[in-house]
Amino acid sequence: MSSVQEARAALGALLRELRQNATFTVRQLAEVLGWPHSKVSKLENGRQTPTETDIRVWTQATNAEHETDGLLARLRTLEFQHVEWQRQLTSGLKSHQVKLTELNARTRFFRVFEPTFVPGLLQIPDYARFRFEQSGRVFGVRHDIDEAVYTRIQRQEILYRPEKRFHFVLTEAVLRYRLCPAAVMLGQLDRLVSLSMLPNVKLGIIGFGVAYDVAPSHGFWLLDDDRVMVETFSAELNLAQPQETELYGRIFAQLATVEGISYGREARSLITKAAEQWTTYLPER
After folding, report:
1. Are residues 139 and 71 in the same domain?
2. What is the reported pTM?
3. Which domain holds residue 22?
4. Is residue 16 a contact partner of residue 23, using CB atoms and an 8 Å limit?
5. The CATH number of the domain where 165 resides is what?
6. Are 160 and 127 found together in one domain?
7. Among candidate residues 166, 178, 184, 186, the one with its CA nearest the CA of residue 271
8. Pair (275, 150) in one structural domain
9. Using CB atoms within 10 A of its CB, is residue 231 exposed (0-12), middle (13-18) or buried (19+)?
10. How many folded domains does the chain comprise?
11. pLDDT in tens, 166-225
12. How far is Cα 44 from Cα 26, in angstroms, rounded to an integer?
């Protein structure tokens, strides 16, 4: 179980305990609340996350209103760990970028692994636009793409702060996946070359020929030693338990030092070779 699943299961177990203490069966409580009995079962078994309203009516129905604040605190912790994109993006794409800006301002050491696309802090505006347009197509949020792009590019100002350190590890696939037009990707690759020369930025590229010690299952951001951020198609996971940050720290260290990884001139050489391939995709003049 992930910590998110564990937290949801633990919250469900507490709700079940309140129901049992009130001597309700699942069906009886469902009737009192006017819910399908399947909802009560899903909440108790951690297959569904309750809302604040769900918790309030549950504790009221089971005469356990003194437990409400504690359960709500657990729910908010769970929501910090698992934030569904559909809910997070209801206020638009820009608002999430603003939250990230505030989080980045507090972070001094960034360790980032990405196997699929260029990390946001390294993106050029046109590449960022294609990333946001993809999210827009999936979640139907398209009204503030310009503002989101602008805010993401503003975030990159922190790359030039000497007190900040950045270590990015990308797979060679990031340089070659066709996620945007060739002209955009050529500009993006040029940007990677430039940023790799900043004194506080370390950029590693794991080439296709490298044998992995740890499979590149998914991307993640390790912010100081305090938080790991993982993006899935449906949600953003925020992992903050010490055992989780320590685990991801070890995984990042293994990926960042895998035999054959390229840094400096070797990394820029891989980027240049990828750019040469991208020129073949440009439309003929």
Report:
1. no
2. 0.72
3. 3-83
4. no
5. 3.30.870.10
6. yes
7. 186
8. yes
9. middle
10. 2
11. 999 999 999 999 999 999 999 999 999 999 999 999 999 999 999 999 999 999 999 999
12. 9
